[in-house]
Amino acid sequence: xxxxxxxxxxxxxxxxxxxxxxxxxxxxxxxxxxxxxxxxxxxxxxxxxxxxxxxxxxxxxxxxxxxxxxxxxxxxxxxxxxxxxxxxxxxxxxxxxxxxxxxxxxxxxxxxxxxxxxxxxxxxxxxxxxxxxxxxxxxxxxxxxxxxxxxxxxxxxxxxxxxxxxxxxxxxxxxxxxxxxxxxxxxxxxxxxxxxxxxxxxxxxxxxxxxxxxxxxxxxxxxxxxxxxxxxxxxxxxxxxxxxxxxxxxxxxxxxxxxxxxxxxxxxxxxxxxxxxxxxxxxxxxxxxxxxxxxxxxxxxxxxxx
Length: 306
Known about the structure:
The protein is an alpha/beta fold. 28% of the residues lie in helices and 27% in strands. Strands 1-4-3-2-5-6 form a 6-stranded parallel beta sheet, covered by helices on one side. It has a 6-stranded antiparallel β-barrel with strand order 9-10-13-12-11-14. Helix 6 (154-162) packs antiparallel against helix 7. It starts with a strand and ends in an 11-residue tail after the last helix.
């Protein structure tokens, strides 16, 4: 998969092109991407994804993102695009006239464009389907997808995460919510009470669900079950929330490695404890609850009880 930052860098002509922000690569996005892959295979044409990072709302300081650039590329890779164009989005780029963007697409001579019917582009979001329709041989626009009566949208998923409704967010995503970050050294307080944690540094713009959760972590040997605590540090409440993960039945050095944590089930809200004894007792309860939750998950993340 080739990754470029401008449509001008795309070498393919006549491709099947899917356009979108794809923040979260949720079930609605997956319809577009699956159709891109299907049509590219059926017509023996290259598949190209054109997306943006960060999302516009993040660039203007109004929101967090669901996926970092690396996370998004990994999720898009499941659809085997020949090229992903990830345009750096900024306040300056937001002033691009819709005609300029349309001309860039026209230069690619796409066979087909696959897009959501609410896709907008160009300065003040002036561009829409009417501007796209003359460019490809065929334009396919998908409506918003609903699941159990709920519209699948990135903004809705962020709302679920903020409320701790991880299971509902996962339904809209179509998979457990992923958080990727590097393990850094912490205070090692968890190790002193029998619950060592990996302290994972994430981008401060990443949407994190606050609370305690049952999780799995991708390791070289396969998915490793565990539990995670996410929230502000008591001494630094204004900083970005921290992510600490305790892996069950695991012994090893993870410092300075990149890990992806998948969130499966909400266990409880964060709270303060009177002392280490109370904290240790609660962590034992959390561990049992997380193991039970993961036992009902896919076989790849099941764990022994006890």
